């Protein structure tokens, strides 16, 4: 009884302080799927050009060395772990992910991938989403060997999942080159519908594999990243066509998630409006303490948006002043703004609930 009272009081204090409590008795596992926005090093173990294994990547990471993250420091998944008081998840391909580390969860994400298997073909060896799900199955087998089949099932059921897909299906597939295969096969509205139908199968598969709390991020404002400003913009305005793609895709993703939850009969999937989270600081960077949302901190050419971030690239001295770290990826500070909305954002940002609400509900179950 006393322990229950302590738990209730602790939960109440956490709600007052705006934090999220994780029971000392049960550390919730965290599983991450997706692309370079959340990859924390899997591609370093692969023969692929989609890598972030050279300076200045990682310049603001605690070790000040490249880690495989496409960031100057922490990515979205890292910050969620940090805010939950969890150990950071390890890349699933890391040989260090053994023993008790399996209980923390795992990161299966791989830079360059998309919803479709042909997305990112130019990067050669990357872990496409169905391969990531296959690795999740393998993870569960390893976990079962350690804590038993029933223990593993419960651990996965009680875990938190983050999945980030979709952007590459546009920038590294449909719009990769003029007259791409997919753009000749589909008009844009039909392509978006096809992506949504394929994504639904992926999310349903995640559910069938035991995922019960899944944050699903939409695409950001793809036409506003420095890479696309450099390639497509004459006056610094966001590219109209890529913005049109995002405006078609994101509402349909939200509708699909609502329908899937209704079919299951539970709010398993939580839609994160990454588009609006980004647009807040893209259109008003000064309000968030940035000097620019058009120029990448690291890069070259117009808007520092051409090519990759390399040791020879232009590099800003203060990463906290830039919304974008490289031509495609937000800075750690921008990622922290995004994660704050994931935790506490209104239903304009998180639907049907934010992560803090979800955690509070689960703590009472």
From TrEMBL:
> Which organism is the protein's source?
Arachis duranensis
This protein's UniProt keywords: Hydrolase, Lipid degradation, Lipid metabolism, Signal
Does the keyword Transmembrane helix belong to this entry? no
* One annotated GO biological process: lipid catabolic process
Question: Record keywords: Repressor included?
Answer: no
Please report which protein family the annotation says this sequence is part of.
Answer: Belongs to the 'GDSL' lipolytic enzyme family.
By what name is this protein known? GDSL esterase/lipase At5g33370-like
Under the heading Gene3D superfamilies, the entry gives: SGNH hydrolase
The residue range of the signal peptide is 1-24
Q: Which GO terms describe its molecular function?
A: hydrolase activity, acting on ester bonds
What Pfam families does the entry give?
Answer: Lipase_GDSL (PF00657)
SUPFAM superfamilies given in the database record: SGNH hydrolase
């Amino acid at each position: 009884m006393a322990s229950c009272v302590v738990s209730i009081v602790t939960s109440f204090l956490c709600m007052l302080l705006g934090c999220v409590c994780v029971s000392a008795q049960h550390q919730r596992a965290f599983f991450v799927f997706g692309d370079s926005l959340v990859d924390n090093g899997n591609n370093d173990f692969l023969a692929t050009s989609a890598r972030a294994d050279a300076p200045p990547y990682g310049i603001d990471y605690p070790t000040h060395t490249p880690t495989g993250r496409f960031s100057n420091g922490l990515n979205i998944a890292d910050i969620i772990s940090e805010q939950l008081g969890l150990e950071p998840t390890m890349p699933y391909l890391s040989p260090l992910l053994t023993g008790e580390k399996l209980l923390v969860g795992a990161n299966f994400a791989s830079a360059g991938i998309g919803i479709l298997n042909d997305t990112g073909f130019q990067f050669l060896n990357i872990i496409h989403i169905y391969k990531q799900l296959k690795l999740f199955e393998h993870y569960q087998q390893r976990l079962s060997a350690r804590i038993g089949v029933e223990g593993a099932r419960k651990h996965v059921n009680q875990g938190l999942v983050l999945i980030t897909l979709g952007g590459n299906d546009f920038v590294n597939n449909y719009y990769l080159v003029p007259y791409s295969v997919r753009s000749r096969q589909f008009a844009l509205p039909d392509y978006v519908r096809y992506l949504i139908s394929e994504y639904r199968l992926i999310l349903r598969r995640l559910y069938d594999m035991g995922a019960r709390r899944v944050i699903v991020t939409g695409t950001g404002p793809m036409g506003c990243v420095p890479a696309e400003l450099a390639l497509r913009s004459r006056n610094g305005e966001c590219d109209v066509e890529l913005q049109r793609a995002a405006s078609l895709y994101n509402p349909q993703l939200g509708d699909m998630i609502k329908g899937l939850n209704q079919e299951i009969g539970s709010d398993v999937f939580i839609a994160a409006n990454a588009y609006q989270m980004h647009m807040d600081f893209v259109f008003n960077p000064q309000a968030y303490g940035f000097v620019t949302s058009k120029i990448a901190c690291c890069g070259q050419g117009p808007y520092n948006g051409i090519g990759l971030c390399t040791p020879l690239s232009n590099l800003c001295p203060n990463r906290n002043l830039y919304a974008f770290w490289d031509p495609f990826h937000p800075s750690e500070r921008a990622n922290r703004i995004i994660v704050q909305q994931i935790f506490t954002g209104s239903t304009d940002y998180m639907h049907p609930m934010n992560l803090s609400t979800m955690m509070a509900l689960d703590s009472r179950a």
